[in-house]
Amino acid sequence: MAMLKIKLVKSLNGRIDKHIATAHSLGLRRVGHETIQPDNAQTRGKIQQIAYLLQVSEQ
């Protein structure tokens, strides 16, 4: 299964509560945090919602 490497590159301060919750559900807590998630529809949907905060690469 393909995996995605997701990095939080912008701060969560002042963001919509729903976007903060989405970042936390991906395992991202602070700027610079990276996580590896499976490449599936659920993960892609979360990434699409907060794409302006993230840097994503395939692994």
Compact summary:
The chain has a three-stranded antiparallel β-sheet with strand order 2-1-3, with no helix packed on it. The protein is built from two helices and three strands, in the order E-H-E-H-E.
Report on the structure:
This protein has helices at 17-25, 41-49; strands at 3-8, 34-38, 54-58. It has 2 helices and 3 strands, in the order βαβαβ. The radius of gyration is 10 Å and the shape is globular. A 3-stranded antiparallel beta sheet has the order 2-1-3, with no helix packed on it. It has 59 residues and is of the alpha+beta class. Helices cover 31% and strands 27% of the residues. It has one domain: Ribosomal protein L30/L7 (Ribosomal Protein L30, Chain: A, 2-Layer Sandwich). The model has no long low-confidence stretch (mean pLDDT 97).
Overall 3D shape: globular
Query: What's the CATH topology label?
Result: Ribosomal Protein L30, Chain: A
Q: Give the overall pLDDT as a whole number.
A: 97
Number of helices: 2
Poorly predicted sequence stretches spanning 5 or more consecutive residues: none
Helix content: 25-40%
In CATH, what is the homologous superfamily?
Ribosomal protein L30/L7
List the strand order in the largest sheet. Answer: 2-1-3
Task: Please report which band the strand proportion falls in: under 5%, 5-15%, 15-25%, 25-35%, 35-45% or over 45%.
Answer: 25-35%
Q: How much is the radius of gyration in Å? A: 10 Å
The second-level CATH architecture is 2-Layer Sandwich
N-to-C SSE string, H for helix and E for strand: EHEHE
Number of domains: 1
| Name of the CATH class | Alpha Beta
Number of strands: 3
Structural class of the secondary structure composition? alpha+beta
Biggest sheet overview: 3 strands, antiparallel
Cα separation of the termini: 10 Å
